[in-house]
From TrEMBL, chain A:
Residues 3-238, 256-499 form the ABC transporter domain. This is Nucleoside ABC transporter ATP-binding protein. It holds the Pfam family ABC_tran. The keyword ATP-binding applies. It comes from Saliterribacillus persicus. InterPro entries: AAA+_ATPase, ABC_carbohydrate_import_ATPase, ABC_transporter-like_ATP-bd, P-loop_NTPase.
UniProtKB/TrEMBL annotation, chain B:
It comes from the Bacteria. Keywords: Cell membrane, Membrane, Sugar transport, Transmembrane, Transmembrane helix, Transport. It is found in: Cell membrane. The chain crosses the membrane at residues 61-84, 90-113, 151-173, 194-212, 232-258, 270-290. This is Simple sugar transport system permease protein. It is a multi-pass membrane protein. One of its GO terms (cellular component) is plasma membrane. The keyword Transport applies. It comes from Saliterribacillus persicus. Signal peptide: none annotated. The lineage of its organism: Bacteria, Bacillati, Bacillota, Bacilli, Bacillales. GO terms for molecular function: transmembrane transporter activity.
Length: 503, 307
């Protein structure tokens, strides 16, 4: 056996993040770990990678017991980890990122030329297409993910841990990645893959281990199981297929006319003549490969970016270039794209994060003095309702698992009860149970007669809950579909820059 | 009447800018590893004081400089421990360090030398002025570069060395990496704390040299709070120069120039209140014109998450 974890327990205070976990990995195997948000997947892997020490239990690699005290020791044992959040240096080149901490040297000097050559050879060997001299900040997310994997390979890892590598990728990029993983295992690497997407598990893995509440609830051969069984092991119940009811579409809530945004320095058009409406009782989805203007559109609607031409109306109010607060008061709630950058204050408590957009409301304050009891009760109810897993309300947000923080932000914004919700990647990194719940909440909002704009790089998400789908490409809206005539292929084609066939 | 601009103005600019340059480079190193070092002024003051005190004790300029450098480096460990290990707010710690430094130097001055305000001794030797043999003979360049203290030349040398350090060495790139994304550097097994300590200690050494230039180079005395905010001007030089060694050289040159010219204007019957104001006015104006992203990054006090 290549790798064996026995009886691993990790306690944070009185809380068991992992409890007596047994896990093993064979040579050339792709082994999936699945489980709900906060089940303890990342924690387990952090211990294997030396970023955390187990409270109890042992780790053995190739039959020999090891205490792994820091990432350096893990790397020496041939263990590499691609983290849930990218660990890259934006202003470094791709080659510099890959060779980091193992740079080719000439004396004390950095041999950048050799670095680029070595990286090019490595990329070729594993069939990954990259340009070593490109800056990371200029590289699309899919390429950044490849860089993360190449980095681990460059360090000579045989055991590669991937923590939710597909969460931020587009369907096409996911396909590429899964092919790469297969290739890697053929070339002698062993892979641990953490993911919430069970179809990926079924496609590439040999074995699956399911965690729930820090414990193993099943470890099976992929061939001998199916997604239904796995989700039952994960959540502890069968998932219901959601029914969409017909809702009468009402007046327009968000209406955007001839919106243009031009970059200051390069005069490039980031958004070009965007026109669309979101009506009451409607979920409008925007599909597109990330980086085609979605972020700018979000920033324009929420008041984070100056609009050059055109107008944005929320209900009857012209919100073009108003301040963020004015726009929110006009009736906008917003689940931001990036949970750490825009969505939360990492070092603030769970409770404070929940209150961030609420505290000004009458129920929670009087003349600037907060009603702490009311707030505490409200926070507690929200945490229960959205089943956000946290050790306490005072826990700082950065200690929440990625998916749980996402749930917190979604909960906060959905509970605003505003007539309009802008949901950008609302289920990024959340488990299937929570995804189902968030989708239900979005549908409930729509059934209430509110408008929802859903921006997602997850095509299946858009197809399953949107009433109308717009496709964005290079800053323009290049296609519109109603739910009746939408299909996977049609959208994929437009997303890739193909022409909309009339007919 | 003496003219306002001539070649010796450049010569005195070099002399005036040296302390700013050294402290500014110290600030730049810290900024590159993600630390916003507001304590430059205090470190410089400590260096200036230790230089004089040690010179009185040992009557040896090399030993005095060495003593100042080592003493200040040890003093800077307070800053390091609070910022790096205890994760305290960098600005608060930096300002506290500045006040601590004023307190310690003033107190010691009074107990050790039994004087208030300033200590000077006519007998005491200051840093020697070097005339570089060949350069001295070249007509214009000779006027500009010759006749400075060793610390001024050292400042120029360190600027060049630091530039190559960041551009071409492996360690330099790791320093940058720590400043850009601390969590990522840590996750790759980099000893982040060690690097941040190194940066703080190097900045203390540079500040101490700057302080010695003030107390033993430009004059031969120590007066209470004699840096008079130069550490803050150096901090501005760091920002203006975008934490790039040559950038810091140019911006501290600008401040050194205003200082030199304000002295000259005093001798031309322009009110001293006005001329003394000049460096600070330029600093404020410069802050409006230039914005620096690296400083903002340093301020964000990286506590990223890998989850
Ligand atoms: N430093 C810490 N202090 C307290 N609790 C912590 C700490 N780190 C993690 N936890 C808790 O441990 C649990 C497991 O977290 P972990 O990140 O391993 O979950 P996960 O399975 O990776 O979830 P996700 O799918 O959302 O990424 C969570 O409930 C989290 O809140
Ligand atoms: Mg996780």
């Amino acid at each position: 056996m290549l790798l064996e974890l026995t009886g691993i327990t990790k306690k944070y205070g009185d809380f068991f993040a992992n409890k007596k976990i047994d896990f093993s990995l064979e040579e050339n195997e792709i082994h999936a770990i699945v489980g709900e948000n906060g089940a303890g997947k990342t924690t387990l892997m952090r211990m294997l990678y030396g970023m955390e020490t187990p409270t109890e239990g042992s780790i053995s690699v190739r039959g020999i017991k090891h205490k792994i005290n820091n990432p350096n020791e893990a790397i020496k044992l041939g263990i590499g980890m691609v983290h849930q959040h990218f660990m890259l240096f934006p202003s470094f080149t791709i080659a510099e990122n890959i060779v980091f901490h193992h740079e080719p040297k000439k004396g004390i000097l950095y041999n950048r030329k050799k670095a680029e050559e070595e990286v090019a050879i490595l990329a070729k060997k594993y069939g990954m297409n990259i340009d070593p001299s490109q800056l990371i900040s200029d590289a699309p997310v899919g390429v950044q993910q490849r860089v993360e994997i190449l980095k681990v390979l460059y360090q000579g890892a045989d055991i590669i841990i991937l923590d939710e590598p597909t969460a931020v990728l587009t369907p096409l990029e996911v396909k590429d990645l899964l092919i790469s993983l297969r290739n890697l295992s053929k070339q002698g690497k062993s892979i641990i893959l953490i993911t919430h997407k069970l179809n990926e598990v079924m496609q590439v893995t040999d074995r699956v281990t399911v965690l729930r509440d820090g414990q193993v609830t099943g470890s099976l051969k992929t061939k001998e199981t199916d997604t239904g069984h796995l989700s039952k092991l994960m959540v502890g119940r069968e998932l219901a297929k959601k029914e969409k009811t017909e809702v009468k579409v009402g007046a327009s809530i968000l209406s955007i006319e001839h919106l243009n945004i031009i970059e200051n320095s390069s005069k490039k058009k980031l958004l070009e003549d965007i026109n669309f409406q979101v009506k009451a009782g409607e979920i409008v989805g925007i599909a597109g490969v990330s980086g085609n203007g979605q972020s700018e559109l979000i920033a324009a609607i929420t008041g984070l970016l100056q609009v050059n031409e055109g107008s944005i109306h929320l209900a009857d109010i012209d919100i073009t270039n108003l301040s963020v607060r004015q726009i929110r008061e006009a009736g906008l709630a917003h689940i931001p794209e990036d949970r750490y950058l825009w969505g939360s204050a990492k070092t603030a408590s769970v409770e404070d994060n929940l209150m961030m957009t609420e505290y000004r409301k009458k129920a929670f304050q009087k003349n600037g003095i907060l009603h702490t009891n009311v707030i505490r009760k409200f926070a507690k109810e929200t945490i229960n309702k959205f089943s956000i897993k946290t050790t306490s309300q005072e826990e700082s947000a950065q200690n929440l698992s990625g998916g749980n923080l996402q749930k917190l932000i979604a909960a906060r914004e959905i509970q605003q009860n505003t007539p309009f919700l802008l949901a950008a990647e609302p289920t990024r990194g959340v488990d299937i149970g929570a995804m189902e719940f968030i989708h239900e909440q979005l549908l409930m909002k729509r059934n209430n007669g509110d408008g929802v704009l859903l921006i997602s790089s997850e095509l299946s998400e858009i197809l399953s809950i949107a009433d109308r789908v717009l496709v964005m490409f290079e800053g323009k809206i290049v296609g519109e579909f109603t739910q009746a005539d939408v299909s996977d292929e049609k959208i994929s084609l437009l997303m890739a820059g193909g022409k909309h066939e009339q007919g | 009447m003496e003219s306002l601009f001539d070649l010796s103005l450049i010569n005195s600019t070099l002399r005036m800018m040296a302390p700013l340059l050294l402290a500014g480079l110290g600030g730049a190193i810290c900024a590159r590893v993600g630390i916003f070092n507001v304590g430059l002024d205090g470190l410089m003051l400590m260096g200036a004081f230790l230089g004089i005190a040690a010179n009185v004790l040992f009557e040896n300029l090399i030993l005095a400089t060495l003593f100042a450098v080592i003493g200040t480096a040890i003093f800077s460990l307070i800053l390091g421990y609070l910022i790096i290990n205890l994760q305290a707010n960098m600005i608060v710690v930096g300002i506290a360090l500045n006040f601590l430094s004023i307190g310690i130097t003033t107190f010691t001055l009074r107990t050790m030398f039994d004087v208030k305000g300033a200590y000077y001794d006519n007998e005491m030797a200051g840093l020697p002025v070097i005339h570089i043999p060949i350069i001295r003979e070249i007509p214009i360049i000779g006027n500009i570069f010759s006749g400075q203290t060793p610390i001024v030349y050292l400042g120029i040398l360190i600027t060049i060395l630091l530039f190559f350090f960041f551009r071409s060495t492996v360690l330099g790139s790791r320093y940058d990496a720590v400043g850009i994304n601390l969590t990522a550097a840590k996750s790759q097994g980099i000893k982040v704390k060690a690097i941040q300590y190194q940066a703080i200690i190097i900045s203390a050494v540079l500040c101490a040299l700057g302080g010695v230039q003030l107390s033993l180079g430009q004059v031969t005395m120590f007066s209470e709070n004699m840096t008079a905010g130069r550490g803050f001007i150096a901090l501005v030089a760091t920002m203006l120069g975008q934490s790039n060694p040559f950038g810091v050289f140019l911006s501290s040159g600008l401040f050194g120039f205003t200082e030199a010219i304000s002295i000259r204007m005093q001798s031309m019957n322009i009110p001293t209140n006005f001329t003394l104001m000049l460096p600070y006015v330029i600093t404020i104006v410069a802050m409006f014109i230039f914005k620096d992203k690296t400083q903002l990054n340093a301020l964000k006090n990286n506590t990223g998450s890998t989850r």
